[in-house]
From TrEMBL:
Official protein name in the record: hydroxymethylglutaryl-CoA lyase
InterPro entries for this protein: Aldolase_TIM (IPR013785), HMG_CoA_lyase_AS (IPR000138), HMGL (IPR043594), PYR_CT (IPR000891)
Keyword annotations from UniProtKB, A to Z: Lyase, Metal-binding
Coiled-coil features, chain-numbered ranges: none
NCBIfam families (alphabetical): PRK05692.1
Top-level taxonomy: unclassified sequences, metagenomes, ecological metagenomes
Family membership noted in the UniProt record: Belongs to the HMG-CoA lyase family.
The enzyme's E.C. designation: 4.1.3.4
GO BP term, example: ketone body biosynthetic process
Length: 307
């Protein structure tokens, strides 16, 4: 898909700030602030928001109050509020909280999988069989994540065939969409093109999403690489919330504002009010007492041409 073909093409943004962003922030926010963030994001026009994670608080204490966050949000029609659910206990809690969608995750790196959960990629994905079956029975969509798709902190290079295999396995379990993640942010446009091209042999472009970290400043260029292959779903985090746990001091998730600004410049339809999103970006950074990592939020919206 060339630049001209992108103009007017719809695109879907999956906002990761309340989950993937906050779980990597050092400061613990109150439940009301977390719910307020979700509400502000929805009011800006974002229609897919990962609101929490139903995991053991011993693993991720920042997500311990996810049920309370779901109870505290003001749900807007047309907005899908999702949560990460790695096991049946988490899934049951998520259902009780009224999630609209659940997500499961796997790594594309065999060494990462072995070091973290002591099993192979395929074995790790098969552990989600019960969650996916229960979600299917309940009519709840399941999204899959594949991390370390462009590189691994332990293994280094990750074969594209392994990424594609993880996509195939997750789709076989019933995931309607699989997000391809550059967890350490080392991917470059050609690398992303090669990996996504291999994944497109397993799933169509409308069933794949991009989840790129901006550790080395490549995320926007990498997103462009995916857009040109026909992918149109992008994960991003307001203000660039979250960091890269494998690169001290480095940025993590690409900032939603920066992605929206680029997409609007391409003439793509996001349905997002960028000005309201920037206000939300500054608000949450003030709550966290942290520096805003969105270039667009820091620069502000440009004066209209010809003004």
């Amino acid at each position: 898909m060339n630049m001209a073909e992108l103009k007017g093409h719809p695109v879907s943004i999956v906002e990761m700030g309340p989950r993937d962003g906050l779980q990597n922030e050092k400061m613990q926010l109150s439940t009301s602030v977390k719910a307020g963030l979700v509400d502000r994001l929805a009011a800006s026009g974002l229609q897919r928001i990962e609101t929490g994670s139903f995991v053991s608080p011993r693993w991720i204490p920042q997500m311990a109050d996810s049920a309370e966050v779901f109870a505290g949000i003001t749900r807007l029609p047309g907005v899908r509020y999702s949560a990460l659910t790695p096991n049946m206990q988490g899934f049951d809690r998520a259902v009780q909280a009224g999630v609209d969608e659940v997500a499961v995750f796997a790594a594309a790196s065999e060494l990462f999988s072995q070091k973290n959960i002591n099993c192979s990629i395929k074995e790790s994905i098969r552990r989600f069989t019960d969650v996916c079956a229960a979600a299917n029975a309940a009519g709840i969509p399941v999204r899959g994540y594949v991390s370390c798709a462009m590189g691994c902190p332990y293994q280094g290079d990750v074969p594209a065939a392994d990424v594609a295999m993880a996509v195939r396995e997750l789709m076989a379990l019933g995931c309607y969409e699989v997000s391809i993640g550059d967890t350490i942010g080392t991917g470059t446009p050609q690398h992303v093109h090669d990996v996504l091209s291999r994944c497109l042999q397993e799933a169509s472009a409308d069933k794949l999403a991009m989840h790129f970290h901006d550790t080395y400043g490549q995320a926007l260029a990498n997103i462009m690489s995916g857009l040109q292959l026909g992918l149109s779903t992008i994960d991003a985090s307001v203000a660039g919330l979250g960091g890269c746990p494998y690169a001290q001091g480095a940025s993590g998730n690409v900032a939603t504002e920066d992605v929206i600004f680029m997409l609007h410049g391409l003439g793509m339809d996001t349905g997002v009010d960028l000005s309201r999103l920037i206000d939300t970006s500054h608000w949450i950074c003030a709550q966290l007492e942290r520096h805003n990592q969105s270039r667009v939020a820091l620069a502000g919206l440009p004066v209209a041409r010809g003004a």
